[in-house]
Write a structure and sequence with these properties.
The protein is built from eleven helices and no strands. By secondary structure, the protein is mostly helical.
Length: 268
């Protein structure tokens, strides 16, 4: 009996852990905005109740659960690939799906950040998650074949929103502060990851790590980018630097406004 005739294989490949038809996930639909709304609600509630959370005897336990949830979500993507395969059913080379995408390492760093309270991981994720990490929330092109009836839908959204939430959690509850002088950490990290990805893209068939080659970002967008991987990496790093500068400007203005309000209360 061939794999395609095996009822067990068909169940997993066509059921909850499998894939649907291309285009089943619709941009800007209810199921697109729902995870984003839940993320915003979680961030707002964490800010409002930050003092209670900080003083709670269960705070450390919550961080442990959050960290383990992120690690499980990340690992489950690869466990599923081993049994189901890629969304491109004609692609059997799983080497093209090694954990070398930005979002995957952001999730790993966020896990280590909440478990160890290490500020080096925060310095990287506060930049990457709140710049490049936000883009897939609005253009989740990689889940066109997986709507809410499929596990990949939930895995994708949790993999992307939990690290962003973790960054805000560490800022609000643990008092971690962003520092514009630490942007270099994120840029160096992305540059090193990018060079590794270029090597893998050359050596592994079908590999499109960091979207440095191919049309995985969408043909309209990639048509504007150079075909050369080093050229794309340079553009991505430049965009990241600009986004990071804009991010810290926003945080600076928010802090400045907050300081004025506090000073006004003192003067009153």
């Amino acid at each position: 009996m061939s794999a395609s005739e095996n009822p067990i294989v068909q169940f997993y490949s066509e059921g909850f852990f499998g894939y649907g038809e291309k285009g089943i996930f619709k941009y800007f639909s209810f199921w697109h905005f729902l995870p984003i709304v839940l993320l915003i609600a979680g961030i707002v509630l964490t800010y409002i109740y930050r003092e209670k959370i900080r003083s709670s005897k269960h705070e450390k336990t919550f961080r442990l659960i959050l960290g383990m949830a992120m690690m499980f979500v990340e690992m489950s993507y690869f466990w599923r690939l081993l049994y189901i395969g890629c969304s491109d059913l004609g692609e059997i080379n799983l080497l093209s799906r090694l954990p070398f995408q930005v979002c995957e390492w952001s999730c790993i760093f966020a896990t280590l950040m909440v478990l160890t309270e290490n500020k080096h991981f925060f310095d990287i994720d506060v930049v990457v998650c709140l710049t490049l990490g936000i883009m897939p929330l609005f253009l989740p092109a990689v889940i066109q074949r997986t709507g809410p009836a499929y596990y990949r839908y939930y895995q994708f959204w949790l993999e992307h929103i939990l690290p962003i939430y973790a960054v805000f959690y560490m800022m609000f509850v643990k008092g971690f502060r962003y520092n514009v002088k630490k942007i270099y950490k994120a840029i160096i990290y992305l540059a090193i990851l990018g060079l590794i990805c270029i090597y893998l893209n050359i050596k592994i068939p079908h590999a499109t790590y960091m979207y440095l080659q191919g049309d995985d970002l969408g043909e309209a967008l990639t048509s504007l980018l150079p075909k050369n991987q080093f050229g794309r990496l340079a553009i991505f790093l430049g965009i990241e630097l600009l986004l990071a500068a804009a991010e810290f400007l926003i945080f600076y203005l928010i802090d400045k406004k907050k300081a004025k309000k506090e000073q006004a209360k003192v003067d009153a």
